[in-house]
Amino acid sequence: MNSLPEAAARRPHGPIATVLLAVAFVSGFLLFLSLGLWQVQRLGWKHDLIARVEARVHAAPVSAPDAAAWQASAPVDHEYRRVSVRGRWLPGLDTRTQALSEAGAGYWLLRPLHREDGGVILVNLGFVPEGWEPPAPDPDATVEVTGLLRLSEPAGGFLRRNAPGQERWYSRDVQAIATHRGLTDALPYFIDADAASAVQAGTPWPRGGLTVVRFRDNHLGYALTWFALALLVAFGAWRFALEERRIRRHWRQRNTELPDGSPQSRDVDTR
Question: How many CB atoms lie within 10 A of CB 58?
């Protein structure tokens, strides 16, 4: 802000300009304050999510939900829960989706499992390198799969859309895969198999148990940034009001009398 001698050289703002500036200061303050409060809410939600997921991934496995149980609940009630399911593999219907894991670049190998109590579940057996061919599963053998329940990943990956007709998959889109494979009774989620469930005899692939359970938690930093901007706007408004008051006081004195005591015409800019 200008010092008083410099500020006195200009005329005070008119009523319209003063109102517009006040509205701008108040709007900016409320905007930054609301964004900070929203990030605080997000912070609480994120910490609840992390705590909930941590409890689920280390809990004893429960039965994977069937169609009725899924429809009677919200998807977030099941996400990252450890589940188990028994059934038979459906051979010849594997799907590979592009993957980048701690094992390198390659694919996730998804295979449909016809569960004993009805319905089909896509199972992500884990990471496989490019060019590796899995042995054909025994369609008559009953297997038990344990892993983490995951929600579908619709559409595709970053800037890449799935192209089922070309067998190009960039995300684990359960509905698209089920439709392309003719799995009419597929459940709308998939299971990330753990290492024991994914192992194939005589080969290190697929490598299961590579689910990354990690969430970005930058909400506190964002909240502090928005609150700091709100305080900066409030400080700017206070400084503006203080300087405007000084200028108006100066102009009132100037318009009251001249240095020799004679009256002076009022010429305050009222724009």
Answer: 8
